Amino acid sequence: MKATGLRRGALLLALLGTLLGCAETQLAVHNVKRLDEPAATATTVPQTGTYKVGKPYQIANVWYYPREDFGYDETGIASWYGPGFHGKYTANGELYDQNAMTAAHRTLPLPSLVQVTNLENGRSVRVRVNDRGPFAHGRIIDMSKRSAELLGFTNQGTAKVRVQILETESRQLAMLASGGTAGGAPPPPAVPVENVAVQELPPVGGGAAQPAPLRTASAEPAQTGAALSDAGPQRLRTATLPDQEPVVTQVPVRRTEIYVQAGAFTQVGNAVRLRARLSSLGDVQIAKALVGEDAFYRVRLGPVASVEQADRMLELLLENGFKDAQVVVD
């Protein structure tokens, strides 16, 4: 898109602020990771933190709304973070380890367990959400360096992903981190240490790579009894699931496209009017989607050719009052 077209589009969008007041969907999230926070050590905080949802918060004029959502399933763009935060506090009081299978999310409870699938190569891993972020617009999850390596996108920096919460495991983590146990029973015993065999996947985009030799890795017992604090009526326990060598699964790859969603409406007429006013910015479409029993009409620009182009389009919309605008993958 030429610069003159963007400026003309920006002037047009500036006149549409009042119309977008009826947009009926919102983004959501909490605490910003800070490079200037002091590094934590194993003697000051435990390796696993407390259970936390958090209050609504605002970052760069965008509001985020943390909540328990055990039906969460979203596609979008993932990023990763590493050395600058290694050894510092996460949002729920843990030590960030760039080599652990963890991630940051704006709204999911801390901790939660999610399945993250790279839609570009089909690789899929499970990670524990223990931090807030990412706060770059257009991203839905920030992976640790290790998990990004296993998903195969550290070099490119971002990837189209699907993020699905694992309800049973996430509820177990929430219960343990909150100091509760089912029916008042004592915590379950630690899982015995055992050897597991793991075979590495071939490199992304590579040819016929030779199979990697199998290696064994000792699984660590779950730390279900370590106390975080003596405050309150119950002792808080650490919240971990059995810690094993990361498992990478492979799923079929299907073609996906990147779009920038300007708004979503329950009334199709509102969507039609917005589509007409955004037409000078490029291809605009209305996509119908069911959320529970409710039908929403989503106004989307695209498909766009790259994440960078989507970022520029998203920033333009946000600057002109489209506070619900987001990057989506379909």
Description of the molecule:
The protein is of the alpha+beta class. It is built from 5 helices and 15 strands. The chain folds into 2 domains: 98 residues, Sporulation related repeat (Alpha-Beta Plaits, 2-Layer Sandwich); 188 residues, Barwin-like endoglucanases, CATH 2.40.40.10. A 6-stranded mixed β-barrel has the order 3-7-4-6-5-8. It is globular and about 50 Å long. The N terminus is likely disordered.
Number of strands: 15
Give helix % range.
Answer: 10-25%
| H and E string | HEEEEEEEHEHEEEEHEEHE
Spatial strand arrangement across the major sheet: 3-7-4-6-5-8
Approximate strand percentage: 25-35%
* Overall average pLDDT: 75
Give me the CATH architecture of the largest domain, please: Beta Barrel
Helix-and-strand structural type: alpha+beta
Give the tally of structural domains: 2
- Taken from the alpha-carbon principal axes, the silhouette is globular
| CATH fold-level assignment of the largest domain | Barwin-like endoglucanases
Largest sheet: 6 strands, mixed, barrel
Q: For the record, give the distance between the C-alpha atoms at the N and C termini, rounded to a whole number.
A: 22 Å
Just give the CATH class of the largest domain: Mainly Beta
The residue ranges in which pLDDT falls below 50 over 5 or more consecutive positions are 1-8, 10-47, 181-242
* CA gyration radius, whole angstroms: 22 Å
Number of helices: 5
**CATH homologous superfamily assignment of the largest domain:** RlpA-like domain
